[in-house]
Design a protein that fits this description.
single chain; 241 residues; alpha+beta; Aminopeptidase; 8-stranded mixed β-sheet; 27% strand
Length: 241
Amino acid sequence: MRKSVRFTADSYISTILGEISSRGLRIDQDPDLTRWRAAITAAPGNLGANISFDPAHHDLDPGGPHYWLRVTEMDGAAKGRMSACIAFRLIETGKGGWMEWLASGRLFSSRLPPLGRPRLVHPADLNWRGRIGHHGGLWVHPERRGENLPYLLTHLIRALSVQRYDVDHHCGLVFDDLRNSRIPLSRDGYGYTRVVLSLVGFVDAAGKVTQMHTTHIDRRGMDKQIAEGPMAAIEPARAAA
């Protein structure tokens, strides 16, 4: 049974870091997203880098409010191998809100106009404004899937966004296959509170005609998750792959 303990952001983060370490894994933060791009492009089974976090498309020089987390093996034959990663950037929306970042295409590239103009179908009453933490580029090595690393990394990076950047919201982007799974909204998955259809048509981040959905949680939801603490028993066998 869960103890009646209210977590702070610091204790929540420490608990998740301890869970990752207990699995024989090392986790490091890196301010250079060019290294994330190189690592994830070479990762087994990955289809490429999410251009929302690609320094070739944005001014994301080291030292800004953006970074990535690299998880590597500490022992055995796979020692030193990257087994998971996730990227983060802070978006300050301005008056146009999240919808303007989607509609203009600058979420995907601030250096080039978009190739296509997908139809914006994101509900106007959900046009979040302020400081938005944005995660993406999540990848887990095939040999480490089923061990709840997506849960650990998404919840860790959200708690860090609260601790470091005092965010108002946190968002991710997913395509239909992930939207139709249980992972974005499940308690032992990403733990977002809503998924909203946002773009329909040619999306530069995909390089094809598709549908893109925004995953979202507001600050109240993040504070609640942090206060309740990570899942009482973070068991790999129960995890979202």
